[in-house]
Amino acid sequence: MEVLGAIMALFRANAGLTQRELGNLVSVSEQTIAFIEQGRRALLPRPAVEIDRILKTGGALKVGVEKLPKREKFPVWAEEFMDFEREAIALCWYENVVIPGLLQTSDYARATLRSGVIPHLTEEEIEQRVTTRQDRQQIVHKPKPVSASFVIAEPSCWAGSVDPR
Description:
2 strands; about 10% strand
């Protein structure tokens, strides 16, 4: 992922564009472009095709995304987290308003990914992420399962103002 990001950065620089300018052309933030170039965020297939078109790379980024080894489809921090998660003997989790990925059904995960909270994903990207979430759930189904604690909070909505007394 880092190599693909560095190649994208080189193509962008050779085209004379800043991260902000490329982001505007692709309709993503400057920070997203920076994270992709730093290998902190995966370059997804749809943006890869658009960036290839803009930077006139001949499809190099699209092919790079398609050929990434499965393990390199996630940022380094996420890969490390999932390694620790697989080896853990206990997990403690807190989520606000959403059910953690380890507890999500396929239907719930699809609904969450289609909710518009994150950038729009294609159906193929959604299915890839749902599969990844379901694969991660194996850690709670192994013969000696991890001891897991989850706290899920859903704050109530306030109508009107709050009396500070």
